[in-house]
Every structure is written in C-alpha cells, then in structure tokens.
C-alpha cells in the first residue's frame, strides 16, 4: 500500500480533530500439524489478511478493523473511527520515516518453501523416539507450527514500518501409565527462526525428553508440604519472573492501580542480587522482533536493576499518559485487536554463583527442575505455580523425584528472598494471554536459591488434574 493512500486514510481518521491515528495492516500465513496415536490428525494452513485503524482523542480510543483491503472500505472504517473526536479538523503533513531496527533475524530456510512432507517427517521422528523410551508410554502427541506475518504500520506521528516476522515452534507431550498412576511429560522449542531450527535441535531429543519426564514421575513420591528453601534450576524456565513480576510491570496495569509495583519507581523491590530485563532484541528468541505492533523499535529494557525498580513496559498510549517515550512493548494478537503493553523475552539476569554450589549450600529443600503453568493476582502479587519436575534436596544433594508440588507465594516478597543467583541462564517459550489476546513470549532465569516458599503437596499425592486459567500457556 503506497504512502499516498496511507496518508489519505490517516487524514480521514483525524478529520474530526483527534490527537493520533494509526493503521495496522497484516497478512499472516499459518501452518499447523498435529499427530496423535501415530497418525497425522490435522494439517491446517491458512491466510488471514486485514487492517485495523486506531484513533485516540484525549482519553478516548476508537478501534475499527476490516478484512476487506479496498480503498473504499479502509476510508469507510477510518471515517467511523474518526467520530471518537469532537473537535476541529487537524492539518497533517506526514513525512513517513522508517526507524532503523536494533536487531535483524537471518532466516536460512523459509517455512513456506519447505514441503509439507518434510514437516511431517520431523513429527514422525519425534513420535517414534518418544514411544521407544519405555513401554509405559501410552500416548504421545506432537505438534508443529509456523507463522509468516507481514505487517505495514503507519501513524500520524510519521512512523512508517514494513516488516516480516517468521516464527517456528515444535512441541511434544507424552503420557505414561503403569497401571497405578498416570503422569505427563512435556518438551518444546521455538523461535524467530525458519525450518533451520531443526539444525540446532533434533526432534528425537524432544521426544526422549518428554518421555523420560513422564516415566520418571511415575516412580516419584508425593511432595512434602510446608515452608522450605527452594532451588530453581535454570532449565525450569522463567515462569516465576513472567507471572510474579513481569505482568505487574506492564504500564497499563500500573496506571490502573492493578499492580503491586505501582508508584514504586526508585524503590527497592527485590534482593540486590536481582536484575530483571525485558528484551525484544535477543536474536532468534520466541518473543523477539525488530518492531513492535506500533512501529517502534524493539528494545532492551532494564526493569529492575540490583533490586531497584527502574522502569515499566510501555506502549504508545500508556507512554503518552506518563509523558515519556514508548519502550517498544506495544503488541497485539492480530489486526482485529488494539495494541497493549506486553512482555517479550523477560528474564532475571545472570549472577555470579556456581549452580552446583547453590545446591550444596542448601541442607534441605525442593529442587525445581521444570515449572508448569501458573497464575498471579497482579494487584497484590500473590501467585501459585505447578512444578512439572521436582526433587528433594537432602544434605546439599539432589535426591528423590517428587510429584504433586505447587509453589505459593508473593512476587515482591519472593524477589526479596532470593539469596543466590547462578551464572547460567535457561529459556522457555509460551503464549502469554492478556485481555483475550495471545502473543508469543519467552522467559528465563538462572539457577536461583529462594530462602523459603510455601510448597503445597502431599505424601500421598494423587494424580487428579487441577484445571486453571493460566496466564501463560506453555507451548
């Protein structure tokens, strides 16, 4: 779409005197393949095309969208959106400028140029490897997905961006049954990569990892309960930082008074060993991008530095309210939704401690090797998380596997109780849900020692599945 037409659309959007107008145009091609019971159950492929127009006038926002990309239809929805304002027409002289991105992503093998049979082969390899681990593996599901998204973003401040985002993901879920107990194991990979993701990750390894976790949990004892020290492995993923801290640092929740971190800039909110970062510019991570969905450059934002709260995550609207610049965190699920502040790749930065020494310094406690899902009340910071794979720590050694453990605590209090931070870093991927919108994210942490948390468990743990509406869906 040429700049002349974009300017005309924005002029109509501003015709009633609005302060700001924006158009977001999207063409998204998706492929999804799933395998269950050794059969390819579904192969879905499709294209979604449309545009959304946002108009802001004072405290009011109008958002309209269409999947009909004709000049007439776009001008029509621009006229509808313009009615949010009740003022005089503003004269605009737009000189669209393209900001230089901080990071580039080299795609070696575009997924749209890979035969569907080659994608199916990766699934079959993973499925076979998973089933071969142990006869107790009774069910296996494997999924592959890729997304190719082209966007054009222009606004009345003169921003103009054309971008292509490519992401690939792969997941395996194994169910083990020994006649007395049923347990699950899960593994995944994903990133801003093309099909070359399999050059760096063997699908066999994912299948074996998922199966081993499921089989291991069959023989695990029920987790003890009560307050105890916690050591979280780097490979546990950053579910805790994402939920217990990250959402509370999104500026819209802060401004609405729905965050425990509101009005605490400059205050000590964590142990001095803790630095929390949100970074959209890490090459090939699942939450990375060149530009956010408002056309701002992806950025590295230090949110908490040495325990001191330094910054929140902003989109254009929340940044305007606080009279500052966006941090490049404006994201949306598709052209049908308005952008809101969202995390990208959020992590606790590496420390100086040896992970092995962290374990040895713990006389007794729980070692969390892999986290499950979780949920948080951002208003007060209270959270609860499932432990997908955990072990007892006895006399400074990792010993028996345990199942049925949950971690309960308060985000700010937990950050204050982090005593040691390892020099390693492990990532997990997921789809983060907020206000009905899901966006790809990753999160990470080093090996960490937390003074004590409440562990929920039972020495006679059952296999009853507890259903929750998790904010982050592990994929």
UniProtKB/TrEMBL annotation:
Domain Metalloprotease TldD/E C-terminal: start-end pairs: 225-457
GO cellular component term of the entry, any: cytosol
GO biological process, one term: proteolysis
UniProt entry tagged with the keyword Protease: yes
Keyword annotations: Hydrolase, Metalloprotease, Protease
Span of domain Metalloprotease TldD/E central: 110-218
Pfam families named in the record: PmbA_TldD_1st (PF01523), PmbA_TldD_2nd (PF19290), PmbA_TldD_3rd (PF19289)
All copies of domain Metalloprotease TldD/E N-terminal, residue ranges: 21-85
Gene Ontology molecular-function annotations: metallopeptidase activity
InterPro entries for this protein: Metalloprtase-TldD/E_C (IPR045569), Metalloprtase-TldD/E_cen_dom (IPR045570), Metalloprtase-TldD/E_N (IPR002510), Peptidase_U62_metallo (IPR051463), TldD (IPR025502), TldD/PmbA_N (IPR035068), TldD/PmbA_sf (IPR036059)
SUPFAM superfamilies, sorted: Putative modulator of DNA gyrase, PmbA/TldD
Keyword Acetylation: no
UniProt-listed PANTHER family: METALLOPROTEASE TLDD, UNCHARACTERIZED PROTEIN TLDD AND PMBA
Protein family per UniProt: Belongs to the peptidase U62 family.
Protein name as annotated: TldD protein
